[in-house]
Amino acid sequence: MPQIVTTSPKPEKPDFINARERLIVALDVASADEARRIVSELAGAVGAFKIGLRLFTSAGPAFVRELVSAGEKIFLDLKFHDIPNTVATAAVEAALLGVWMLNVHCLGGREMMKRTAEAIAEVCERENLQRPLVIGVTLLTSMDSIALEEIGMGNDLDDGVLRLARLAADSGLDGVVASAKEARPIRSTVNRDSFVIVTPGIRPLNATVDDQKRVLTPAEATLSGSDYLVVGRPILTAKDRKEAVIGIIGDIQRALEEQI
Question: N or C terminus of the chain: which is more exposed, having fewer CB within 10 Å?
């Protein structure tokens, strides 16, 4: 069951997020059984687990409830993008699952994001539930300037990301999903200390890039200003997943110490 609290305050970014809490492992696998094995292996070693479209389509909301009930922090990565009412009502259902974080796509526009944030806050207050972080996807890390131009948005990727990040902040969202290469400009553009930046496309030095275009290492992303790092294949395909996690957390820790 979702965690019950006496109030439903707006979640705030902690003043200090330790290295372990910053790591989100992407459960980008085909079945609940496979995901359970990964969670059992890494529970307590990482900050949270991400459930995306593939696993959610396969295992459904029941599996999300299962992990939440087991005490795991879940980032539900479904990138809701539809008309405002459809997204708001779907995101409310996601919040009722007890997830720690969920996302919508910024390209849905101001009204969609604003109504979604307001609807989630309202239902969590009414039901005395902890409100999840609601973040916006700017531009997918698989996109580059050529892909952006192909869909009619010009070829200035950096400007597009910053515009969408500002729109997300103005619409009441808690943060954005963005490449670590855009994290520092976003920090300069969005003047809100609690604004969260979640970064996929993280690849340790010895990992392959796969289908990501805008990637950085865990240390580089942390130094650039990313709060949470989403890592999938470099951990999931490792011979020793715990060893891979320890290495990534070590990189994050060294970056944090460098910032002191």
Answer: C
Contact 75, 102 (CB under 8 A): yes
Active site residue 79: yes
Amino acid letter at 179? S
Are 169 and 187 contacting, i.e. CB atoms less than 8 angstroms apart? no
Question: How far is Cα 179 from Cα 177, in angstroms, rounded to an integer?
Answer: 7
Mind listing the pLDDT tens digit for each residue in 14-37? 556 899 999 999 999 999 999 999
Distance CA 101, CA 197 (A): 12
Could you give the CA distance from residue 58 to residue 65 in angstroms, rounded to a whole number? 14
Give Cα 141 distance to the centre of its chain. Answer: 13
The structure tokens listed for 111 are 């009204």
Catalytic residue, candidates 13, 50, 73, 79: 79
Query: Where do the H-state alpha helices sit in the chain?
Result: 19-22, 32-42, 53-69, 84-96, 110-127, 145-150, 157-170, 183-189, 218-224, 233-236, 241-259
Q: Which residue in the block uniquely carries the two structure tokens 């849905």?
A: 108
Owner of token pair 């949270």: 48
CATH of region 19-259: 3.20.20.70
| Tokens at 81, concatenated | 């993008």
pLDDT in tens, 99-148: 999 999 999 999 999 999 999 999 999 999 999 999 999 988 778 788 88
pTM: 0.89
CA pseudo-torsion sign 230, 37, 101, 145: positive
